[in-house]
Design a protein that fits this description.
alpha/beta, two-stranded antiparallel ribbon
C-alpha cells in the first residue's frame, strides 16, 4: 500500500489551507516542515510558495534534510499572488539530494495584501484535493 506524507511552509496561511485539503484526500495529517519526515513515504507532498522571488531558505533546508532512502519522490504544490509555481526551484534543490520531483504539480493563486482576495477559495481547495487523489497509486 502506498505511503504518503504532507509537509508545508506558509507565512500567510494560504499554503496551510491547501495542505489540509491535500492531506485529507490522502488520509494523512498536514504538518509544517518543522516536522521531519521520519517514516518511509512513496510521495511527499510539499507545499510552499515564493517569498522574495524564490523558495524560502527554510524550504530549501528542509529539502536538503530529506533522506532519499525514505522519501522516494516529491509532489510540489502551492499558491502565490504574483508568480507562478515554485516547481523549478524545488526540483533544483531536490536534484541536489537525489529525490525526483513528479512532473505533475498543483498551483493556484493566493491572496497577498489584497491581491486575489479570498484565494485559495473552496474551488481551489477542491482542486488541490483532486490533485492529491489523482496521484494515489
Amino acid at each position: 500500500m502506498p505511503r504518503y506524507a504532507v509537509r508545508y511552509y506558509t507565512k500567510t496561511g494560504n499554503t496551510r489551507k491547501l495542505a489540509i485539503s491535500v492531506a485529507e484526500a490522502l488520509g494523512v495529517k498536514a504538518l509544517p516542515i518543522s516536522e521531519p519526515v521520519t517514516e518511509p513515504v512513496d510521495i511527499l507532498f510539499l507545499g510552499n510558495s515564493y517569498y522574495a522571488f524564490s523558495i524560502d531558505p527554510e524550504v530549501r533546508d528542509f529539502v536538503h534534510s530529506l533522506d532519499k532512502s525514505k522519501v522516494h519522490s516529491i509532489a510540489n504544490f502551492g499558491s502565490a499572488a504574483m508568480l507562478n509555481s515554485t516547481y523549478k526551484k524545488v526540483k533544483a534543490e531536490a536534484d541536489k539530494v537525489g529525490i525526483p520531483v513528479l512532473d505533475r504539480e498543483f498551483h493556484c493563486r493566493g491572496e497577498f495584501k489584497g491581491i486575489h482576495k479570498g484565494r485559495p477559495n473552496e474551488e481551489d481547495l477542491k482542486a488541490a484535493a483532486e490533485f492529491a487523489r489523482s496521484l494515489m497509486k
